[in-house]
Amino acid sequence: MFLHDKKPLHTVKVDGPNPKFAAMLQEQLGGANGELKAAMQYMSQSFRIKDPEIKDMMLDIAAEELSHMEMVSMLITQLNGGELQANQATVGEVQTHVLTGLAPGLINASGHPWTADYVNVTGDLVADLLSDIAAEMRAKVVYEYLYRQIDDKGVRETIDFLLNREEAHNQLFRKALGKIAQTGSSRDFGVTEDSKLYFNLSTPGGQAFDLSHIHPPH
Amino acid sequence: MFLHDKKPLHTVKVDGPNPKFAAMLQEQLGGANGELKAAMQYMSQSFRIKDPEIKDMMLDIAAEELSHMEMVSMLITQLNGGELQANQATVGEVQTHVLTGLAPGLINASGHPWTADYVNVTGDLVADLLSDIAAEMRAKVVYEYLYRQIDDKGVRETIDFLLNREEAHNQLFRKALGKIAQTGSSRDFGVTEDSKLYFNLSTPGGQAFDLSHIHPPH
Amino acid sequence: MFLHDKKPLHTVKVDGPNPKFAAMLQEQLGGANGELKAAMQYMSQSFRIKDPEIKDMMLDIAAEELSHMEMVSMLITQLNGGELQANQATVGEVQTHVLTGLAPGLINASGHPWTADYVNVTGDLVADLLSDIAAEMRAKVVYEYLYRQIDDKGVRETIDFLLNREEAHNQLFRKALGKIAQTGSSRDFGVTEDSKLYFNLSTPGGQAFDLSHIHPPH
Amino acid sequence: MFLHDKKPLHTVKVDGPNPKFAAMLQEQLGGANGELKAAMQYMSQSFRIKDPEIKDMMLDIAAEELSHMEMVSMLITQLNGGELQANQATVGEVQTHVLTGLAPGLINASGHPWTADYVNVTGDLVADLLSDIAAEMRAKVVYEYLYRQIDDKGVRETIDFLLNREEAHNQLFRKALGKIAQTGSSRDFGVTEDSKLYFNLSTPGGQAFDLSHIHPPH
Amino acid sequence: MFLHDKKPLHTVKVDGPNPKFAAMLQEQLGGANGELKAAMQYMSQSFRIKDPEIKDMMLDIAAEELSHMEMVSMLITQLNGGELQANQATVGEVQTHVLTGLAPGLINASGHPWTADYVNVTGDLVADLLSDIAAEMRAKVVYEYLYRQIDDKGVRETIDFLLNREEAHNQLFRKALGKIAQTGSSRDFGVTEDSKLYFNLSTPGGQAFDLSHIHPPH
Amino acid sequence: MFLHDKKPLHTVKVDGPNPKFAAMLQEQLGGANGELKAAMQYMSQSFRIKDPEIKDMMLDIAAEELSHMEMVSMLITQLNGGELQANQATVGEVQTHVLTGLAPGLINASGHPWTADYVNVTGDLVADLLSDIAAEMRAKVVYEYLYRQIDDKGVRETIDFLLNREEAHNQLFRKALGKIAQTGSSRDFGVTEDSKLYFNLSTPGGQAFDLSHIHPPH
User: 10 Å Cβ neighbour count for F160?
Assistant: First the structure.
């Protein structure tokens, strides 16, 4: 069961309105590497996990990502200020000013709606943890890109907090992967000599391809 | 901030595996009127609400919908059983058997991924509460359709619980609407005589249209 | 059968070109609460309705929404002017200047294509009429947001007309709902005590949750 | 302005219920080459056309496609019968039985929702008419595929009618193309020797590629 | 089998960075008429073609379109320069500056991700070749729109090359269509008198419709 | 530049038609972890990579994934046989039998079209290589799921080959990651104490949450 506490996980307070950066921050609310994606991926993966410790960790992190989602939404709400002004909001999506009445939508920085196509679930714990480690790294990179493009100290403080939490999750997923590394997809499955070939399918410009080694006689 | 409690909101226990019904139930996990949609709609709407009581109610219900989402996922997981068997899973989506390893995906009964296009947020509280009332009614109807097509007593008991909760939310949203009915979009905005016309744009087959009343001379 | 009359439902004449506002207006052509959505929702709902009066009303309004779609397209076409100038079109979508040759596309203000995911059809007349009432209210709110951000008198006159028509449809749907309020999903369906509980799943920050009432012994 | 006549364009009467074929027919309601796509493509293209005859033809055909959409919806409604029975509806989409209450949804045969990504509009009349000719041919092919897989005489009669109408539209579009063939994209635009080369980028298996003619010295 | 040669098909060198035009050019990388769409359409169509000459041509052109995709990506990469600067990138999509680290994404000019809904495959060679001819014409029109809005000589030279190649493909598809024109969907399929009617479903404003010829007595 | 060789990378020959398994195999052609996704991800990532060895490897593997895509398409084409028979194709998508004329479409096993939302590109080489390692692992898992559900020896031989190639790519990506592990996102970026906390946001059922450590006084 999920519960909500009225206090946010971490205080959010921007220096002042900045609708353009609000649009850019939508990427971490409703984008491919954003907080909703993270929450949904870990929650979805948790449902068939049998290891109680890892299952619990997945749901802990999912709850935290929902709390991050709340924090990013607070950032966006504060940055949007109180005026509809599409003419001044010239970066990326504009639905904020014509559709949602300045409320944060579940869209990315260009206005593309969040989709479950972002979520990776395979039911194989090794594959799923690797997907989570990669997802946290991508989320961290996006926060870095956003951090570099804003001077507002309040925004920077919040991004800094969120970015460090992604790093913390990354370490937890890596530790879990270490624990179960010898199960699931990491076991050999019909590994043959085919997995050891390197197919050089490119060639320096203008030279002839020698394809004879690729098509052995049958 | 969101928190997770290891116990579910309500016990979930199916009589036995039923992969076909598992596929059908996906509609209420990742479909247009499902639990994820409900949770995301109320959470998204809450962020700019100033009335503290209504804001709190929105987040209470959002947390409960996330808990419902967990319950529906448990139902699906139990119904899917333990065997990949796409050949037997002839109703609707088949990703469960080739992609997610029997874990519940964020897709609807036909395999269409969840999208934020399902979520209605306008920043106008009257419009948003009306959207919520309609959403709860649709969710209830879908649960009725599912209930009629399953005999499993455990499944029926859970659907019955969920369906009644939608009704309870509906009543809460209606009460909130009553409280604020004279604000936001319910105020008159440039209402003129145009809002009182009925345009009869259809006609009994074979008769002539009299369009003269629609095109007044300018 | 649908028919087309060469005259528009209402004259459309903008004061002058305004490509930025053209992009914003796309929201009501191809967006979540736009005219195409309205037309498709009422048309789709009509097909299984048995009450001849309500079925007829649905198709009347669907035909009018298609006519509104034509009017919004005329507005956009006039506002786009005659020059491809993506460099000046800095608000929202840019396909108008690189893909459609200034023709209005079925996209929203940020360039997201229209999708049938916007359309709510359940086959239950109460649920469908509630969805329609909520849809008309949202459409009205979006027109208000657009109205506030434009000075062009011709555009304002057309938006004013369209907004009032949404209000008129709203009243028709409410009247129809009154007529059939005791059918369909409004009948009690297994309503138990569960529908009367209020689950308080939030708490003032820092306090302890008392969850004992949520998990009764089984 | 669009109008609706209560009589359908052509009588629709199936021999009996057939939910599987209803699902297959969804392809021509909400699929990539279906009637909604056709109606929206011609309507969208019409808005910037200056030639009054061609503009009128576009809107005539758009209105007819909307009327076809109504006919296909009637077919589906009759074929779905009166019982929710997802367990028997083992072909393609299943939303009909869990979401729409047997009403025809704007989805294709597998349940994918209609999207404006299907619609081709460029604002260049030659390109648009070529797109329309290709679209009509594809629509005809899909009707042929459906015709071959059904014995119901009522269904066959309706498909036969619709298929012949696509052929008729095809001829109209070809005639219009003949009329304006020397305008728009058909004019030479920077045509150089590059447009006359044939790049042979494939080779019989195992042979060497001679790429020297592709990379001339600069 | 596909192979990659390190040299591009044609040298790409822009005069200088231009992030706004980079965003506009995304339309031909990940948009509805872009290079990825072309490559995927011809590759997908080729798989069931029996005519060896046409199958070979399809795969030749598919390989060339992949090479064009590489060229457009090089253009975008050079135009994006080396600085994240969402505040200066005010035209269309902004994911380039917050998500992809200036790498070209598979999105269109407004940030909508590429989708296979753009791809037309029917398995009928006449319909498929007509789709290809129309697709090449649309691609050419989009390149013309882009060409008109850029002064950079390096960009213009590349667009000029690509545009001419579309024209060359167009001629190849037309020639193939001539070769097989009497097969597949071009054969008469149940053509009746219905295909020869013209339904005039529009009327000059204010006049009465005479529908009597449309509803013959049954 | 890409080139096409008429011979496939590896011979493909199924024992006999099996339309149901053809639908299941669509997952690896047009699904979230399929061959098109892999090809597009590596190609897109390659464009801004400066390390010539890694760039070359990315494009080698992209070319091989396109060749795998060709092999999977051949499998599907052979499995679909020569008859449209939607009534017998009761697993997953049905567009094959009503839309594509038995040609393999760029859709997944349930008929959802391929989308670039599957592709992960961040411009940060560490994040991108981690995404690739996770992607290869997921692809391998899906091939295992498919392998287990088919007896056809020809199909099994091809899947076995493809699965082993994913493993080979995985090793290449891991080696590349080892080479550049100290660049890009792996460098410390504002790592503070926040990255070392573990937030325990879950609790055993029925116990009270102690939130005092989460909300330190400010």
Answer: 17
